[in-house]
Amino acid sequence: MQIKDLILGIDTSNYTTSLAITDKNGTILTDSRVSLFVKQGERGLRQSQALFQHMENLPNMVLDLFSRTDRESIGAVAASGQPRPVEGSYMPVFKAGVNYGKVMAASLGVPFFEFSHQEGHLEAILHDSCISNAGEFVTYHLSGGTTEILYANKNTYRLIGGSRDLAFGQVLDRVGVAIGFQFPSGSKLDEIAIETRERLKNPESLDEIGPSELKVLQQNNKNAYLKKIPINGLEINLSGLETQCQRELRRGAVPNLLIYELFSIIGECLCRLTDKIISETGCFNVLFSGGVSASRFIRDQIEQYFTKKPVQIIFGDSALSSDNAVGISYLGGKKLWQ
User: Fold this and answer.
1) Number of helices followed by number of strands (H, E) in the chain
2) Considering just the CA atoms, what is the radius of gyration of the chain in Å?
3) Cα angle for residues 178, 184, 185 (degrees, 5° grid)
4) How far apart are CA 101 and CA 10, in angstroms?
């Protein structure tokens, strides 16, 4: 009898078509992704455009996956069917993955499971982390469209804070497009922020930064352009941060320095927020998930801040922080075997 120890995961987010195969041991056998195309200068895709691109991507991706996988070993198919695991959470774009998943599961004669995109993000990082079996923890979901803080207890999640308007990822992408980068631009901005951080250690190399701006930067770690993000309880507003960035760019701000400040302010805000979370919940396990948490600059800042504090800060593999189907595949395995 054929051993069905593989799980096929599908995720069709607004900007990536993803397929993944994991086995019963949690090994990632396949992790394939195709980024959706966004025209230069555009700040995103409409749902209809994204859905069309998923339907174009999935046939070739599925055929390629099956050419490299023993389909008789697939024990279940899982897909993301909504943005968040709450009533009323809906985006048409996830219909592509759900419909393909149901058809493939029926064709293979195996169960089909449906989860949320957010649950997939969290599981991708949580699965192999040091708190995978923890009774409680706090997690951030920091993605292109979401900035949320969730309290996890006994496999249930409760929203306790986050942004009331824009997400960090939206701010980064909008600023990146305004500067002239292709959407999404978070990873490119992260590279620039890290490069500028290293160059600031040697001011002589910063020819493009004016002396007045450099002076402000060097005095008491003050910023030349941007103000700190106010925190109200465990909630923040980020539209003002984007407004500041757009205004300073129109005034002629040095793009690289503005990017460096933007990342610094995001990291500093997350450090202050995390301190408040620990104080209010008494929970010292904090996990970061979502594409923004893949930022090397922000990771460095947060890890350095909490180095000497009794807090367990968990970042996963950067590749699993961005949109992927690995977490959905893991969840399918849990549902089937546990």
Assistant:
1) 11, 12
2) 21
3) 60
4) 7
Structural domain that includes position 154: 136-315
Strand order in the sheet with 285-289: 231-232, 235-236, 156-163, 147-153, 136-142, 285-289, 312-315
* Claim to verify: residue 144 and residue 278 sit in the same structural domain: yes
Which residue, among 41, 25, 54, has the nearest Cα to 323 in the 3D structure? Answer: 54
Q: How many domains does the chain have?
A: 2
Query: Please, is 312 exposed, middle or buried when counting C-beta atoms within 10 Å of its C-beta (0-12, 13-18, 19+)?
Result: middle
Number of neighbouring beta carbons within 10 Å of residue 46? 12
Angle at 234 between CA 192 and CA 311, to 5 degrees: 70
Mean per-residue pLDDT, 318-324: 94
CA distance 95 to 4: 26
Same domain (yes/no): 23, 96: yes
Give the pLDDT of residue 220.
Answer: 44
Q: Return the structure tokens found at 68.
A: 């490299």
Percentage of the chain lying above the pLDDT 90 cut: 83
Rounded-to-integer distance, Cα 72 and Cα 302, Å: 45
Q: What is the pLDDT of residue 199?
A: 82
Q: Are the C-beta atoms of 160 and 234 separated by less than 8 Å?
A: yes
Longest C-alpha distance within the chain, in Å? Answer: 74
Q: Where are the alpha helices (DSSP H) in the chain?
A: 47-67, 95-108, 117-126, 168-179, 186-200, 211-218, 239-250, 255-281, 296-305, 318-321, 326-337
Residue 170 lies in a domain: yes
CA–CA separation, 163 and 149 (whole Å): 9
pLDDT one-digit tens code per residue, 266-279: 999 999 999 999 99
∠ Cα 259 317 141 (to 5°): 65
Q: Per-residue pLDDT averaged across 145-151, rounded?
A: 95
